[in-house]
């Protein structure tokens, strides 16, 4: 195409020779003795633009890439006015508001919504259950379900980036545990003090929005993003496997059983040998005659209600248990993961029309859940099921839906709440904005823009509302958000045989997030259906989400290079321009940071986890002294520089452009070049977009 333009505009023989010369410079030659012409070369996934070839004196790939790219867009520029960034976010997103709903009318959005509804339900209920144990029922599954639904609906309707999915985080749970323990020791009202902290945190977040503090997000480069995202993905995978292993406590394996002794295996109910004071009071209050009860004939439920004990060789830790449940749970768990992965890849299968393959691929996880539920019902082994609250009321009868910020606490607790609120503000800000940066990556090709200030403002507003209502706090969930984005990828329809589909972008809309959280709020009325979903199936979905989110993270691609000989390494762009030892050094530093983050998150100091994530930004800044700017431009994003430095660079670039324009006499036609490519520089494994000549 380029030579076509040159040939039509050529005025003499020299122009034609220059066009042919430039064409041959771009050619990769494959020697006939080293290549079988009958083998078909696969078409490229993405054909790079050829416009730079039309420009005289155009920079080659290495030199053009070494120029610092602008890391931050207009949405991260400081305005210098109160709420200036928020106002610009609203103006930027308002024209797209109605199209966000029209674009959601797609079968792909329906598949994404059904998949993520199932994926979001379990962690919300599990988080509520853990919170209920930590706070003795002050905040439990019902409050978690209501808080997630309310926050998610409002965020999906009005946020700047509706592709972000909100969820619960580990540091928040650690904070709640510490706060409840503190209140219990000093006889303070937990819910009232928590409300004060939540309101102060919401206020500080609004102050951050007013001062355009989200502009600091431009210092969060790929180094920090990938370390944080990798940690969250690994935690998802680890917790999925850990929850599966915990089922062994409830459903143990009856090992070394003998067939001849099966007739004498039993697990019966007996009165407690040493009843506690609580049990004695219960018997006395209920007028229960212990000696008049036939304990051996009681059911499991009746035995537990009368505070009896289980005895016998067939008893587990918690009494009788059904055999084979643990093995069946393992089958459900791994089958869910494998089947989800296979159905997701069904789009590239050779069978069935394109529309059928695309539909099956979009509904992969939902179809897997339905298939696994039906198989579980058919087999009949009593696997643990999803438990959803069936009544819309607070978990404890001594609390309502509105909490007094002071309550029975002294007045000074309102001021004392400032200190933990500052820590919570850092936690909320880092969790929210790092996830937002990952969702808004340039490679996702988002067209409707983003709104960091508007996102944080909506989170702050709902954080205040949830605090007053005594509900858990929710911020952006990294893995759920990445999974949401991946489920909405749009690719071109393949027309030619063997042509690879091209990635066109993400289907940006508000419908999926809105429907996920609306249905989550209505889940109280769907308990008759949701109670059939086995928990191991949902654990398998977590494993699938964690593994699938790891794809595309450059850190893991670089990690695999340690065990890969040079001749088998993929043709990554950074391997062409950065020495391998420097690539390994960069990966080792990132790996060390990841291990430290994991150690802190798993320890009692988990509450300072957001501070450690913030420390990654400073670690990355120090790396400027270990790597050149050109190396970092390939391995990572460049850090923003001072305003004076930017102005100096702009002046230097302007001078260089003037010099180039002065040397160039023709624009349409490339100059004749006598420089031929050195045969040693010809790269047979170069990009497929370049012409191949036999």
From TrEMBL:
<dbReference type="GO" id="GO:0008509">
    <property type="term" value="F:monoatomic anion transmembrane transporter activity"/>
</dbReference>
<dbReference type="InterPro" id="IPR003020">
    <property type="entry name" value="HCO3_transpt_euk"/>
</dbReference>
<dbReference type="GO" id="GO:0005452">
    <property type="term" value="F:solute:inorganic anion antiporter activity"/>
</dbReference>
<feature type="domain" description="Band 3 cytoplasmic">
    <location>
        <begin position="1"/>
        <end position="37"/>
    </location>
</feature>
<dbReference type="GO" id="GO:0016323">
    <property type="term" value="C:basolateral plasma membrane"/>
</dbReference>
<feature type="transmembrane region" description="Helical">
    <location>
        <begin position="187"/>
        <end position="210"/>
    </location>
</feature>
<feature type="transmembrane region" description="Helical">
    <location>
        <begin position="451"/>
        <end position="475"/>
    </location>
</feature>
<dbReference type="InterPro" id="IPR011531">
    <property type="entry name" value="HCO3_transpt-like_TM_dom"/>
</dbReference>
<dbReference type="Pfam" id="PF07565">
    <property type="entry name" value="Band_3_cyto"/>
</dbReference>
<feature type="transmembrane region" description="Helical">
    <location>
        <begin position="537"/>
        <end position="556"/>
    </location>
</feature>
<feature type="compositionally biased region" description="Basic and acidic residues">
    <location>
        <begin position="62"/>
        <end position="77"/>
    </location>
</feature>
<feature type="transmembrane region" description="Helical">
    <location>
        <begin position="109"/>
        <end position="132"/>
    </location>
</feature>
<keyword id="KW-0472">Membrane</keyword>
<dbReference type="InterPro" id="IPR013769">
    <property type="entry name" value="Band3_cytoplasmic_dom"/>
</dbReference>
<comment type="similarity">
    <text>Belongs to the anion exchanger (TC 2.A.31) family.</text>
</comment>
<feature type="transmembrane region" description="Helical">
    <location>
        <begin position="607"/>
        <end position="623"/>
    </location>
</feature>
<feature type="transmembrane region" description="Helical">
    <location>
        <begin position="152"/>
        <end position="175"/>
    </location>
</feature>
<feature type="transmembrane region" description="Helical">
    <location>
        <begin position="511"/>
        <end position="530"/>
    </location>
</feature>
<keyword id="KW-0406">Ion transport</keyword>
<dbReference type="GO" id="GO:0008510">
    <property type="term" value="F:sodium:bicarbonate symporter activity"/>
</dbReference>
<keyword id="KW-0813">Transport</keyword>
<dbReference type="GO" id="GO:0051453">
    <property type="term" value="P:regulation of intracellular pH"/>
</dbReference>
<feature type="compositionally biased region" description="Basic and acidic residues">
    <location>
        <begin position="643"/>
        <end position="679"/>
    </location>
</feature>
<protein>
    <recommendedName>
        <fullName>Anion exchange protein</fullName>
    </recommendedName>
</protein>
<feature type="transmembrane region" description="Helical">
    <location>
        <begin position="325"/>
        <end position="343"/>
    </location>
</feature>
<dbReference type="InterPro" id="IPR003024">
    <property type="entry name" value="Na/HCO3_transpt"/>
</dbReference>
<feature type="transmembrane region" description="Helical">
    <location>
        <begin position="363"/>
        <end position="381"/>
    </location>
</feature>
<dbReference type="InterPro" id="IPR016152">
    <property type="entry name" value="PTrfase/Anion_transptr"/>
</dbReference>
<keyword id="KW-1133">Transmembrane helix</keyword>
<feature type="domain" description="Bicarbonate transporter-like transmembrane">
    <location>
        <begin position="81"/>
        <end position="640"/>
    </location>
</feature>
<feature type="region of interest" description="Disordered">
    <location>
        <begin position="31"/>
        <end position="77"/>
    </location>
</feature>
<feature type="region of interest" description="Disordered">
    <location>
        <begin position="643"/>
        <end position="694"/>
    </location>
</feature>
<keyword id="KW-0812">Transmembrane</keyword>
<feature type="transmembrane region" description="Helical">
    <location>
        <begin position="411"/>
        <end position="430"/>
    </location>
</feature>
<dbReference type="Pfam" id="PF00955">
    <property type="entry name" value="HCO3_cotransp"/>
</dbReference>
<keyword id="KW-1003">Cell membrane</keyword>
